[in-house]
Design a protein that fits this description.
Blueprint (H helix, E strand, L loop, with lengths): L4 H25 L8 H23 L9 H9 L17 H4 L11 H24 L5
Helix pairs in contact: 1-2, 2-3, 2-5
Length: 139
């Protein structure tokens, strides 16, 4: 059954809202007393990028797998858009989906890495929101 466009747009906007909530949490972590939970900042940056890519896939009607793998999501997006190379750096966020959730799986995340993760996720947001806007999604 095909969803009505209004329902698709509503779902896309929900994905973006959840994604932006992740960013707010990452930014608020900077206000914590030291040591800041940098692994959580990076995790929420990864989540933001992931959710924005999934929002785009929802709009395009792509049934995406349950995955945290940014490279896989970019691959799925590339079947409908040409910005995969522009977001190649977002692939470096994938490990943060694991490191904050499972103890001992990775090295500690530094402040520099966490801030870069937030910047990369912001770039994903910018590119995807532009693409969504080009396809008539307003929020």
């Amino acid at each position: 059954m095909t969803m009505r466009r209004e329902d698709v747009i509503r779902q896309v906007c929900e994905w973006m809202t959840y994604a932006d909530d992740d960013l707010r949490l990452a930014q608020q972590a900077l206000e914590f007393s030291r040591p800041c939970p940098y692994c959580l900042m990076a995790y929420h940056a990864q989540q933001r990028a992931e959710k924005y890519l999934k929002a785009y896939l929802v709009l395009r009607g792509v049934d995406f797998p349950y995955t945290r793998n940014i490279a896989r999501l970019l691959e799925l997006c590339s079947e409908h858009t040409d910005w995969r190379r522009a977001l190649k750096e977002a692939e470096e966020l994938t490990p943060f989906a694991i490191s904050a959730r499972y103890l001992g799986e990775d090295e500690p995340v530094s402040e520099t890495e966490a801030r870069r993760a937030v910047d990369v996720a912001a770039r994903v947001r910018e590119v995807v929101r532009q693409a969504l806007g080009d396809e008539g999604v307003s929020w």
